[in-house]
Amino acid sequence: RRRLAPLNEDNGRFLLLAALIAAYLSAGATVFSALESPSEAAAQLRWNRTLHNFSRIFNISLPELRAFLRSYEAAMAAGIRVDALRPRWDFPGAFYFVGTVVSTIGFGMTTPATVAGKVFLIVYGLFGCAGTILFFNLFLERIISLLAFIMKACHERQLRRSGLLPPNFRRGPAMSGVGSLVGWKPSVYHVLLILGIFAITLSCCASAMYTAVEGWNYVDSLYYCFVTFSTIGFGDLVSSQNAAYQNQGLYRFGNFVFIFMGVCCIYSLFNVISIVIKQVLNWVLKKFECRCCPKCHKSSTRLSRRNAITPGARLRRHNISVDTDGQYDSDTEGRRLSGEMISMRELTASNKVSLAILQKQLSETANGYPRNVCINTRQNGFSAGVGALAIMNNRLAETSDSR
Fold first, then answer.
1. What is the phi/psi pair of residue 332, to 5°?
2. C-alpha distances in angstroms, 144 versus 3, 181, 208, 360?
3. Angle at alpha carbon of residue 392, lines to 388 and 398, rounded to 5°
4. Is residue 369 over pLDDT 70?
5. Please, which pLDDT band fits residue 184 given cuts at 50, 70 and 90?
6. Residue 266 — very low, low, confident or very high, per pLDDT cuts 50/70/90?
7. Beta-bridge mates of residue 343
């Protein structure tokens, strides 16, 4: 009888993440239901009491009153308010709208009402959202490169203070001969910390501006910043919607800058966090690997003795980093001495992870290597980037290598 093949690492990681997301969603629903449900029920009771009192005092039947309120709800959906608001479809308002479309924020306070506008939005959003996501990935690569250079400079400064580097040391090819810098790699967790601090600082500054200009309290301003920067965009709070502001031009410019920088920063932070989460999933999978199957565990142990390098061994020895210094530049170099027709590069390529890709680029950027250096030379033109685009490119490279 044919036995079913065990789950590979990708499928196991996917199922584990799906289970964790389901548990996370259930926990969040439980907490929000416990927090918000009593307030909702109390508000509904107050509204029913107010509605009946209004109907009784002014001698208006409840069906007529409800019909009037439905008309008012339709007017609100069309953007009509009791208080004067800014025009929704003048050029600044339309620019604000298309910005929320391509960034996928989607507040919902402005929507096209004509058939032509809805059809154009479909075509416009298709290319606009794709181009904006590409821009976010390129922004992530640039910010990672900048952080790598800064951390490299700080590391060299510490080495100079400790006397491990000569005072006249300059970056370049000669630095590979300096023992204190060989193997140094900027930490991904430091990048995560720096991006987190920058995102918090940006949100606090933006919240101070919204509190002063919009009249919101500081907690509501922080809430608006997170909902907007993360592109959730509920639309319950929307900035720059009043008819007039003091220093209106300056405020609109500041609002645009804060939203633009906030979305880019939070997107970068989310991608780095997702890489760390993936590493946690890999660690969990390795802890549970073959514990219920001694035969598989024994086979895995025997395989690791036959090979000088096993998938993931370098990652464990070098603290989640990739070491591709050119030892195996051809298909014949690096093959196992036992004669199997598989190269060590192909063996280790199947276990690359996004965190390793990110640290590899950090190391190459900090040490001045060319940006077009790839982890695997047979990637059909796909460069080893970072973030969501790198995850897709890395997967395409693995697929092409395996066929």
1. -85, -30
2. 46, 20, 28, 11
3. 140
4. no
5. low
6. very high
7. 335
Distance (Å, whole) CA 307 – CA 195: 39
The first and second tokens of residue 232, run together, are: 């959730």
Q: Characterize 16-43 residue by residue with b for buried, 16 or more Cβ atoms within 10 angstroms of its Cβ, and e for exposed.
A: bbeeeeeeeeeeeeeeeeeeeeeeeeee
C-beta pairs of 299-307 under 8 Å, 24+ apart in sequence: 306/336, 306/338, 307/336, 307/344, 307/347
Query: Which position has the token pair 């199997």?
Result: 340
**∠ CA 202-205-210 to the nearest 5 degrees?**
120
- The domains of the chain are located at 8-82, 139-163+187-292
pTM, entire model: 0.69
Would you place residue 210 in the very low, low, confident or very high pLDDT band (cuts 50, 70, 90)? very high
Query: 278, 13 in Cβ contact below 8 A?
Result: yes
289 alpha-carbon distance from chain centroid: 28
Whether the predicted pLDDT of 121 surpasses 90? yes
CB 136 within 8 A of CB 386: no
Q: Is 242 helix (H, G, I), strand (E, B) or coil?
A: strand
Report the pLDDT value the prediction gives residue 259, as an integer from 0 to 100: 96
Domain with residues 139-163+187-292, CATH architecture: Orthogonal Bundle (1.10)
Phi, psi of 316 (to 5 degrees): -75, -40
In 3D space, the residue among 302, 272, 324 whose CA is nearest the CA of residue 143 turns out to be 272
Rounded CA gap, 173 and 367, in Å?
9
